[in-house]
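Course exercise 7: structure representation. Students receive a sequence record and must write out the corresponding structure in token form. The form below is the worked example handed out in class, using adenine phosphoribosyltransferase (201 residues). Read each field label carefully; the graders check that inputs and outputs are placed in the correct fields and that the protein name is recorded exactly as given.

STUDENT ID: A-19
EXERCISE PROTEIN: adenine phosphoribosyltransferase
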Amino acid sequence: MDLCHVPATREKGWYLALMAPNVKGPNYAWLDPSRLYCHPQGLQDCVADLLQPFQGDAIDMVAGIDAMGFILGAAAAATLQKGFLAIRKAGHLCVQTVAQPYSDYSGREKVMEVRTDAISPGLRILLVDQWIETGGTMRAAIELVERLGGVVAVLSLPVCAPTGVAAICMENSEGGKWIQERYKCSHCVPPHLQPRFDQHQ
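STUDENT ANSWER:
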């Protein structure tokens, strides 16, 4: 799709066609969403679709996961006029932090960390990442937020109280289902396309 083209009818997820497939082999993710961010209307509609389920929810802060979650997270924070917290890969923050080990989508063992002075008990956090494949990265971010007393929406909480988790795609992997069963979630993939995304087609 041309980066200047805007469809006459913009249904939810129309901008997914802007994403580019992997042409570099198995050491890379199967799909690259970054081209979507180059399209001004595509980016705006993607962020609007991610935030739609949280309309009316009390959100105190948006947190984005290193690194591609920074793009959508910062855009969501700007739209909501809220602050933005970067959840970093370990070793980049020169202040007091709390750390959490995790395995990413490729099975690599990593550590992420967050500064300890940004989240106060009861702060309602909307967690944003680009993609949830196995769920390991997002689960680690949830753990960090909750260890510091922040609130990520659990499904048993009243709809008006919580915040939650947002990503372009949440795959129906074991880890993805674990998150969706416990937390209020938002993603951009229409139901009829979800099986293709789950199968990386």
